[in-house]
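Posting this for the archive.
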Amino acid sequence: MEIKKGGVVSKLLEDVYIPKMFRAKQTFLRPVITPQEIPEVVFRELSKEKISNQIKSGMHIAITAGSRGVANVDIITRSIVDFVKSKNAKPFIVPAMGSHGGATAEGQTEVLAGYNITEETMGCPIRSCMDTVMLGYSECGKPVYLDKLAYESDGIIVSCRIKPHNAFRGKYESGSCKMMVVGLGKQRGAESVHSDGMGKIAENLPANAKVILEKAPIILSIPCLENAYDETCRIEAIHKDDIMTREPELLKQAFKNMPQLIVREGDVLVVDEIGKNYSGSGVDPNITGTFSTDYAKGGVRVQRTCMLDVSDCSHGNGLGTGLCNAITKRLFDKLDPEQMYPNCITSTVLKTAGIPIVVATDKEAIQICIRTLNNVDKERAKIIRISNSLHIGQIMLSEAYYEAVIQGKYEGLEAQDEPQYMEFDVEGNLVTPLIRK
């Protein structure tokens, strides 16, 4: 498909007015564990009596590492490795990411390397394979699978992050259960739990997790939580017997920690960059409102959304494009179906990999969203610009919000400069930085 600048589409959009924008700071509660404090916290948690005695000298311990952009994931993982070594046990890392990384062992190792998780940085082996062991059937009748190398270990430590899921709601969403069932389940395990669709995953997930806890050598989980600024704010070691009761409590805390776009509604949302390092669906719909299913809701309410680019560490996995109205040629040219489609085939959610309208430039992506607004004064369009869905402490807003912001009508939102026109280079690329340097 040829996308060219200067054609009919460009001519239809060239006179569309883009309102002035101003930078704004969003302020949220900020409990935090600094990177320097993480090793001490991990050691303290793993040293709890009920936890520490699960790791014995000589044991081969598998430690999970996932594909999400978890804050400080390399430091957390290395700290777990070091603790296991301090007990004279033998740690190794297993990629636990379902079908991500193109559903290949090599691809999953490459994903971890993008997060600074390598054998050199971790000081232990990384053992990646897609082979699984079938453990049995859940009470819902679904087959349950587990990574073969992890299953053959003497013990598995489930390292993960607990947060709201982007496509369904339940007592267990993204967290320890999902890491066991989907992450360690590899492609087959992920497909099993997703096979009935997102309307049933809230039931299938804990049902499959119970089989794993009964039949696999899980010894503990050590989930982390993050604050509204994508910073580690809690790390807690949980004995295997307590995972099913403790995880729902931590999920409630994770919901409370979630940031939001304080204005809550607008006309156009501009997302500078999407990627698997920001969310499983490229953007977190709990922020952007761009849900792929009818089984979850929330986020900002807008008529139109455009996405301008995809992160390099996503390796062409541009899931999320199907959740917006327009993308740029630059983003389109980076898409790799071999990276994207395995996720969709496995999850049965095809919408996230759809291709929306593709336009030549950043400017045209914004303009087509404005031009196609309904029942809106387009000269006064309410536009929200974010870097990505994970980092929204700094945003840009159009001048239609300005008076309300400076008058203090939005608690926690502060204007940092006055409205000015965003600048684009001769190729139509957006060059105005969202964060003032």
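The two ends are 37 Å apart (CA to CA). The chain has a mean pLDDT of 93.
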